[in-house]
Specification:
alpha/beta
Length: 242
């Protein structure tokens, strides 16, 4: 009996003006993912700072340029550039931990009907009660996941490349809020969307700190509902936080 070879993984990192955070992200990828991934792609989303120069310090990283600014456009450019069987997306201010890529391999090997794997954030630059409350949001959101059958975060998810193409890629009419919900909702038509509490991604809490926890929770909640019910986000504008 011939064994099915393990599926290859492309890691995609969208980056707009991320020279301050990107080095730690790439260091973590080199340390904890390394040659377990088929390729690591950074999509420079028309940065005006030293993002490109940061990427050039990592010879094993593939540099890709996307001129039209926007997270969904950068994700789509990464998809079109990727050649792995599974495409995993992280944000430039994340720090993929040990065991992260092994979880992707294990989950997709164990479940042929899995369309998307995602999991919660932990915030490495927040402390005390603020960190506890911010991380606890993912626990309070689980009833929504139970009702709809889908939930994910944009800086920590993996999907088979063929499913991403079959569902039409990323919706570039969505500027920012709700893009992750849109991906999860459309992916759920092709298989199971698993939000695993152990598939944790350390990330910066910079947006929460600068815009406020209550405001951010409200924005994400209303846009989740709007995508789930209407198929489009409630909020079109967003603020770059760097």
């Amino acid at each position: 009996m011939t064994e099915t070879p393990p599926r290859t993984i492309s890691v995609v990192v969208p980056a707009f003006n991320e020279e301050a955070y990107l080095p730690a992200c790439l260091d973590a990828l080199m340390r904890n993912v390394g040659n377990k991934a088929h390729e690591i792609i950074v999509v420079d989303n028309n940065s005006t700072d030293g993002t490109k120069q940061v990427i050039e310090r990592y010879p094993s990283v593939t540099y890709v340029f996307e001129a039209e600014k926007g997270i969904t456009r950068a994700r789509q450019r990464g998809l079109l550039s990727a050649s792995g069987d599974i495409v995993a997306y992280v944000d430039a201010d994340t720090q993929p931990p040990p065991g992260w890529v092994e979880q992707i391999i294990r989950h997709f090997a164990a479940d042929s009907g899995l369309a998307c794997l995602s999991g919660p954030y932990s915030f490495y630059d927040m402390s005390g009660i603020r960190r506890w409350i911010s991380t606890g949001w993912f626990v309070t959101a689980r009833p929504l996941y139970a009702m709809t059958g889908y939930m994910m975060v944009g800086g920590n998810f993996a999907m088979p490349r063929d499913i991403l193409h079959r569902m039409g890629g990323f919706d570039n009419t969505i500027e920012f809020y709700g893009e992750d919900v849109d991906i999860a909702k459309r992916a759920s038509k092709f298989g199971k969307v698993r939000f695993s509490p152990t598939f944790v991604m350390p990330t910066s809490g910079r947006r929460l700190k600068k815009q406020g926890l209550l405001k951010m929770a409200g924005l994400y909640f209303i846009n989740y509902l709007w995508i789930a019910i209407r198929g489009k986000p409630a909020t079109n504008s967003y603020r770059d936080i760097r």
